[in-house]
Amino acid sequence: MLILNLKLNAERSQLMDKKSTIFIATHGVMTKEVGVISGELELITTCDDNGVLTLAITYVGAKDLYTLPGEDYRLNAPSDHEVVHRMLATVLERP
């Protein structure tokens, strides 16, 4: 029974909540890999149940994902993921 519980807990910690928003970046968004990208972009954020947040951006319809600068993003509460995602999308879409 203990092994089963440990396995279930390990599986739960791997669960990821994923959010995606499409927007137009007229002034561009800085990425680690290629510098500034602009145009019709998609912000993709994921958050695991420990609050670890991953931020990525891509051109709409493209497969290549780029990372936003910074690292070790962690939310105090995974339930804040939706709000943080919407805030980031709004800031990145600024005119």
From TrEMBL:
- Source species, domain of life: Bacteria
Name recorded for this polypeptide: Uncharacterized protein
Record the organism. Bacillus spizizenii
Lineage per the UniProt record: Bacteria, Bacillati, Bacillota, Bacilli, Bacillales
